[in-house]
Amino acid sequence: MLKQGDKAPNFTLVNTDKQEVTLTQYEGKNVVLLFFPMAFTGVCTAELCTVRDNITNYNQMNAEVLAISVDSPFALGAFKDKEHYNFQLLSDFNKTVSTAYSSLYETFAFGMAGVSKRSAFVIDKTGTIQYAEVLENAGEVPNLAKIKELLATLN
């Protein structure tokens, strides 16, 4: 399990525009990394819409939001278009990043295996994890207020 002070595992994933996104391309910025179980589901939509509606706050704190699920880039693209998300959605279809961040359910609802756990990580400008919250209950959401408070101290 990753914790504060650990070096964030680097990754390369495909976004909704089918372009590769690598964590290291955000060096010099803070990154809010949000794992979510599935596109088009109630709690995931509500969580990401909250982030969307507050994106200006994240931008003002020199923070980039990256949201990751095991959905395909095509499903994530439709989800992003429908909800007008103004941050990157990344496909971890092969589950490598969710695994590296200890954010993968072995068994999820309806017996589905290998779905991302709802999780939040704040990675500072040097690539160090400053906040880690991995939730076992997919009905809960990360403490976004605490994340914003932390981001304010990182600038």
Tell me what you see in this structure:
- 28% of the residues lie in helices and 25% in strands.
- The chain is of the alpha+beta class.
- It starts with 11 loop residues before the first strand and ends with a helix.
- The model has no long low-confidence stretch (mean pLDDT 95).
Content-based structural category: alpha+beta
Strand order of the largest sheet: 2-1-5-4-3-8-9
- The number of distinct structural domains comes to 1
Q: Helicity range of the residues?
A: 25-40%
User: What CATH architecture would you give?
Assistant: 3-Layer(aba) Sandwich
Give the H and E element order.
EEEHHEHEHEEEEH
Alpha plus pi helix count: 5
Q: Quote the CATH topology.
A: Glutaredoxin
Instruction: List low-confidence stretches.
Output: none
Q: Which sheet architecture does the biggest sheet show?
A: 7 strands, mixed
CATH superfamily: Glutaredoxin
Q: What is the averaged pLDDT score?
A: 95
Rg to the nearest angstrom? 14 Å
CATH class: Alpha Beta
N/C terminus separation: 26 Å
Q: How many beta-strand segments?
A: 9
Question: Quick one: overall form?
Answer: globular
Strand content: 25-35%
